[in-house]
Amino acid sequence: MPSHLPGIASGRLSPDEYAANFLDIHPPLDHHQAVVEADRCYFCYDAPCVKACPTSIDIPLFIRQIMTDNPIGSAETILSQNILGGMCARVCPTETLCEEACVREEAEGKPVKIGLLQRYATDVLMDERGEQPFERADSTGKRVAVVGAGPAGLAAAHRLAMHGHDVVIYDAREKAGGLNEYGIAAYKAPDDFAQKEVDFVLSIGGITVEHGKAIGRDVSLSDLRNSYDAVFLGMGLAGVNALGLENEDLDGIADAVDYIADLRQATDLSTLPVGARVVVVGGGMTAIDVAVQSKRLGAKDVTLVYRRGQEKMGASGYEQDLAQTDGVVIRHNAKPKSLVTEAGRVTGIEFEETLEDGGRLVGTGVTFTLPADTVFKAIGQTLVPAALNGSAETIALDGGKIRVDDERRTTLPGVWAGGDCAATGEDLTVAAVADGRIAAESIHRALSSVAA
Amino acid sequence: MANLASNFVGIKSPNPFWLASAPPTDKAYNVVRAFKDGWGGVVWKTLGTDPPVVNVSGPRYGAIHSNDRRLIGLNNIELITDRPLEINLREIKEVKRDWPDRALVVSLMVPCEEHYWKDILAKVEETEADGVELNFGCPHGMSERGMGAAVGQVPEYIEMVTRWCKQHTRMPVIVKLTPNISDIRNPARAAHSGGADAVSLINTINSIIGVDIDNFAPIPTVDGKGSHGGYCGPAVKPIALNMTAEIARDPQTRDLPISGIGGITTWRDAVEFMALGAGNVQVCTAAMTYGFRIVQDMITGLSEYMDKHGFTSVDEIVGRAVGNVTDWKYLNLNYVAKAVIDQDSCIKCGRCHIACEDTSHQAITSMLDGKRHFEVIDAECVGCNLCVSVCPVENCITMEQMTEGVDPRTGMPISNEYANWTTHKNNPMAQAAAVVEPAE
């Protein structure tokens, strides 16, 4: 079998195996399953699941609407709070959000499958009705620039368009969608769902997308501030943290986010090379995503190494279980020490075991080496502030991200920010959507008061 | 294993579980299958005069489901047997011969003229069946022809036909009553006056089970039209329980044996009917939903229950709760209970709070010290039991009686004296002397 090919190789699997490995990881509920599952919801008062949702979707109401055979009404309940409710239904770590808060989790350890129900309703609306349930208000004549066509930017643009503002989105990539298009694991959003959802969002009208326009390269923040009535920054994190080791630029070491982007854009997975022995450094969702996908592309041995203990991993318990079920070996409490190189490429990586001393991570001096054809860096992404330095004033940062207030206003007048580039909390699709919507409402208030 | 043997108006069966006159008892094939699975008896589906009726060849049933498609209520527009009388009689005779230990009662419905009843009773007697049941209950189809519920709704007709039957047969006569009346005691009294050995109830309730809201026709829809039908299944049980109790506690009919019918699905349902005065029970919808094998759970469940309570005969259950059924005016107004929420089993869904807050007495908190917390405010709680009813966790909320101190809601001391509405100061009809509940 080609999967036994040493080194880095493509075509390790049969076409059927590729197809099976990258199928929808959570098959959708059919009508009967949805109604039965919806019936489990207790329609709680002041429901804990709503509080746990960053976008505050009225979950008991949308589930009741499914139960009463009103899936379109259900989808409208979802989308009115979260226009990317379809993607969030697929990628949200519900086990740490709404489903963790579900009272049935407390009652019997089996929460209502809120994520799958949300997917059911949004799928019905998108598949059966197609058009979105929102309309633009009369044009206000105000123009807003949105930087980044990811979840935050799309959510902001949609809400601004609803209020009648004209929106131009600048995005560095060829396709809109941001991490939904380039970052999410392939088996979480198959069938080109990210682009379908982008089309769905943009169909409200009044939104123009300028592709291939990166801030700091093709447009500057100061120009945007001069040309538009308001600016929303939602360009995400362009930088990738380095391991800080020698020879980090050699072949055989790669950024996980780049590899995932290549995978998402590949039309034929069998053309995508993958190492026989893969080591992933990191403990978050990206680390899990690259580890699992490497395994599903046919890598023989995949080891994920995280510097702290299991309880500190950013990836949810569900994601960790998924990786281990797929055969990924997860090692905790070890940090990269040096790269093993041979003939100008990386062939392995040496780790030093760690322990936590009052929260401080210290090496124990005990080391081990893992052979590797590929080492993936998945230890976080960073904002590249240089891209924003087009203006005379400098935007204030907070922990390396753009500082924003409750309304997602930055320190620069007329500039709002949200999503991963803003210092607002967890780097989740759903949190980015919340930021976008909150910022758009704030922008709308600001622009309305100017007009008045 | 307790002895479940039943003797209902002289009709013996190994257990008190009979199949009611309905589709499951229309043929020997079905009845034999039921006996093999353990049913104690059957009431054969209603026989009429030849030529037999015809049924629609479209949908005869409509249902109300829970969201997981459990059948809660069933409605039907099927008529009495549509098979020739001779075939039914022959099969009844064969089945009774082959299953002598099982009860086999034959349901009858013929026009309200004495010769029809005399004639068919003679034919049934030849089958050696154990008894007859007079179908005065069917609310659909047959009632349009002056039979079924059309008879059951006129006490004089009930009495008249019952009397004819008692004159023309040696078999026990059970009169099956329709619930589609204003006061069940009147038809029961009429049956009693006519000499009935027993009544059975309830037959189905007149109903339209639903409407097709795209085609605007009642369900079940036959070629674009629908007709009212008979409603049965778990949903009708409370109505049937009340009617059973009303007959059991009526001074005029308290000695009249009752065969309980109406939504009986489990052994527990059966015990409830028997406790309210039913000597045995008849089942239909549950069998039509799950098949005959459910009787095996009914048998073992009843047996376990009897063993647990030390009952050696099903007759010890019969009527045991009747004495505790009373009129509202005799309820103890000095009894005070308050809801208590067990915080350990509370899952914090908040349904008790919102039900009480929106629709009742604002007696349950939603917050305590800024945290989600549901607790009863005794000073507001009237003890209504709504929170218990809506709570999804069994035994999380209980009603606890106050036996001493002061009711914080009324400021009145708790009294251990029994006092009811008949003597209450707010009752304009209050009687001078304290009236206790009438003696049995």
What's the multimeric state? heterodimer
Can you identify the CATH class of the largest domain in chain A? Alpha Beta
Largest sheet of chain B: 8 strands, parallel, barrel
CATH fold annotation of the largest domain in chain A: FAD/NAD(P)-binding domain
Structural class of chain B: alpha/beta
β-sheet strand percentage of chain B: 15-25%
Share of helix among residues of chain B?
25-40%
Query: Regions of chain B with pLDDT < 50 over 5+ consecutive residues?
Result: none
Whole-number total of structural domains of chain A:
3
Describe the strand arrangement of the main beta sheet of chain A, using strand numbers: 4-3-2-5-19
- Mean pLDDT of chain A comes to 94
> How many beta-strand elements of chain A?
19
Per CATH, the architecture of the largest domain in chain A is: 3-Layer(bba) Sandwich
In short:
The complex is a heterodimer of chains A (452) and B (440). Chain A is α/β, with parallel strands linked by helices and 452 residues long.
